[in-house]
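Handout, page 2. Input:
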Amino acid sequence: MYRIENIIKLRIEALDCATRIAARELRRAPAGRLRISTRNKHDRFYRVAKQFDTSGEYIPKKDSKMVKALAQKDYAERFLKAAAEERVYWDKVLKKVSAFATDTAYEALSDKRKALVAPYILPDDKYAQLWQEAEYAASPYNVENKKHPTRRGELVRSKSEVMIANVLDDLGIPYRYEQGLRLKDGHIYYPDFTLLDLRSREEVYLEHFGMLDDEQYFARACTKMRKYEENGIFPGVSLLVTFETSFSPLNAELTRNMLRIFFGKSAG
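Output:
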């Protein structure tokens, strides 16, 4: 139930943010409204600003900013009305969703009782724990190159991957390092990180390309990205990418912001 609440809260946050922008634009908008008249397949624009005036004052083509401003004003008014109605609706739904106790029935048990029962619906933290503890086939290639310890104690291949792993740990995003992924043609890829999106309980992949100024490495990276796309794994949907060159190192804060936004994490 937490996932549903989170999605609703994210929608409310988006509505509130958009409402503030629309209200600000509406305060700055010119007086009047836009009237559009089409004759012989040509549009003519009029500014209707006086009471009881149904025709309005013609807006010449050179004043396209006025046309757009009045159009935006009309849209802002419509949006604000619709957003207010939707906001009321989601507030009511959120109260009803929060009233359900099915997910909290397990959490309310003592630790001793939790150990004795199998929950019918796994809470997110329990699901994440089981996913994190499950064994998986990791990359067998050049294991000796895994020399850099993360905060969790696992060994990865580069300091940049340590940085990424620690950011994931900071944000509470469950991850596995170099878990095998079988593609449609039978080949097995090993994404640098496999992440668990608890909102959907689906896996998302993160690839770090660390030597993009190397021509051969860049070519292999492009081939890898194309292969992902051929298998329905698209950037920004189920694949996240970080990159760096010798002149532009990985930025931990930008990586943190990308992950925070993608997974709907708060900025706290």
